[in-house]
Amino acid sequence: MLLSANGKLMNPLDDLFEFLRFPSVSADSRFNSDVDACAAWLTTRLQKIGLEARKYPTPGHPVVVARNEWQSGRKTVLIYGHYDVQPPDPLDLWDSPPFEPVVKADKVFARGATDNKGQILAHILGIESTLKERGDLPVNLIVLVEGEEEIGSPNLEAFLKEHRSALQADVAAVSDTGMVAPGIPTFTYGLRGILCMEVRLRGPAADLHSGIFGGSVTNPATVLSRIVAKLHDDSGRVAIPGFYDRVVSLEGWERDLWSKLPFTEASWLATTGSPRLSGEHGYTFLERVWARPTAEVNGFGSGYQGEGPKTIVPSKARAKLSFRLVPNQDPSELRPVIAEFLKQQCPDSVELEIVYQQEGRPYLVKPDSAFGKAAQKALSKTFTQPVAFIREGGSVPITQSFKDVFGIDTLFLGLALPDCKVHSPNENFAVENFYGGIRLNRHLLDQIAET
Ligand SMILES: [Zn+2]
Q1: Is the pLDDT of residue 68 over 90?
Q2: Predicted local confidence at residue 1, as pLDDT
Q3: 13, 64, 97, 210: which has the highest count of C-beta atoms within 10 A?
Q4: Range of 51's domain?
Q5: Domain count, the chain
Q6: DSSP string over 205-226
Q7: What is the Å distance from ligand 1's center to 422 Cα?
Q8: Is residue 10 over pLDDT 80?
Q9: Residue 271: pLDDT band by 50, 70, 90 thresholds?
Q10: Is the per-residue pLDDT at 312 higher than 50?
């Protein structure tokens, strides 16, 4: 419990509920005023705890930045989070309305409960409790909460560059990743990168009668199928020459630790609903997801898709491809490598076009660095069990911006549980983890101050 300004006991959950009631959906312009109102609420909340806070406009949604009074000689910590949320659809699959938070079975249910309002607010309330108790923080602090994470942070890097000197920190901390199981503190030290593209093939100028013309021209759907089929060899490896050149091998200690984590093939299989797990030979399913690169077909289309037959040679075919990358693969280096492979597979009887759509570099922080160790100490003081060391298969491109603009590492101290349903109906955040996050922030700032 915390004291409010008028000395009354306040329940931190009341704050969380207020925060969650804003439908701050960044992807849908119908919610623009709600996104802005949420940023305003957050700015006021940060001011109330004694920080200097401001809402900065961007070409998109505002960025909220707060800081304490800086003193020389102290470490500077940047705590990053986002107040925007995913669209709540499909609404009919929610057991309670997504923007009317409720507690059931010790979990808060609402859109944004875990991703990321619950996690960032836990940090903010942790800061508040330290300030109330000690009158000061052990570090120079920047809290940066953006409103466009769920749409790829299109304006954040420019914002960081514009405010580079005011935002320069020694380390960044983010709670937007997972815990392997309830009560097990989890330090995520690696993330995969990503490279997305659409491959477009054009054959005849228009769909042709397959009786009159079939056999005399190349069918782009056939060519694209062959290309896609050649992306992998029989052992599940990506067959593009040069694709693995910069891949950093898994180390023995990682394989060892991961084999002891509470993940089983059976539970992974149940989560996926797939008949059987598969992938690159020689690696466990966790190793394949966390530390090995992939090539995936995300979408594939050509020709007639309606009911009944339609005998044509289609004019066009297209596939959406994404490559998840691992340290030290670089998407800009791989673009021409992949393009060359696609060109070589493509006969000159069709035209090939490649449209690049999204990319982000992979991330790896040394777990035994001074800040890495500080994060682990904070985690083990907050939760009673030993810290689990994981990587994750997803991508958080903002980490790269922190590295590029400020030259700093990012510490991931996840509070999301495996069944928290982020981005899905009935998103939830364990109340225990909300309070855990408040304690975690205190320990984190203390530990970083001691590095
Ligand atoms: Zn998200």
Answers
A1: yes
A2: 45
A3: 64
A4: 2-191+363-449
A5: 2
A6: SS-EETTTTBTTB--HHHHHHH
A7: 7
A8: no
A9: confident
A10: yes
Same domain, 379 and 337: no
- Whole-angstrom Cα distance, residue 41 to residue 114? 19
Q: Do 31 and 166 reside in the same domain of the chain?
A: yes
Domain co-membership, 218 together with 165? no
Q: In this structure, what DSSP letter does residue 113 have?
A: I
Measure 228 CA to ligand 1 centroid, in angstroms: 29
Q: How far is the CA of 298 from the centre of ligand 1 (A)?
A: 19
The CATH number covering residue 72 comes to 3.40.630.10
The CATH number of whichever domain residue 331 belongs to comes to 3.30.70.360
The total number of residues shown for the chain amounts to 451
Coil, helix or strand at residue 20: helix
Which of residues 360, 375, 409 is at a domain's end?
360
Ion ligand 1 residue ranges (Cβ < 5 Å)? 115
**87-94: average pLDDT:** 95
State in Å: Cα 151 to ligand 1 middle. 9
Distance 115 CA to ligand 1 centre (A): 5
Task: Kindly give the distance from the C-alpha atom of residue 301 to the centroid of ligand 1, in angstroms, as a whole number.
Answer: 28
Task: Tell me whether residue 255 is in a domain.
Answer: no
CA of 423 to the centre of ligand 1 (A): 6
The Cα 47–Cα 155 span in angstroms is 24
Output the pLDDT for position 5: 46
Q: Separation of 396 CA from ligand 1 center, angstroms?
A: 10
Residues 203, 72 share a domain: no
pLDDT at 152: 84
Tell whether 177 and 54 lie within a shared domain. Answer: yes
pTM confidence score: 0.84
Q: For the segment 23-33, what is each residue's pLDDT rounded down to a tens digit?
A: 999 999 999 99
The 3 state secondary structure assigned to 120-163 is: HHHHHHHHHHHHHHHCCCCCEEEEEEECCHHHCCCCHHHHHHHC
Instruction: Give phi and psi for 195, each to the nearest 5.
Output: -140, 120
Pick from 51-65, 190-204, 265-279: least confident? 265-279
For residue 51, report the distance from its CA to the centre of ligand 1, in Å: 26
- In a domain, residue 268? The reply is no
Residue for token digits 């609420």? Answer: 41
Interval between CA 23 and ligand 1 midpoint (Å): 14
Task: Output the CA 176–ligand 1 centroid distance in Å.
Answer: 8
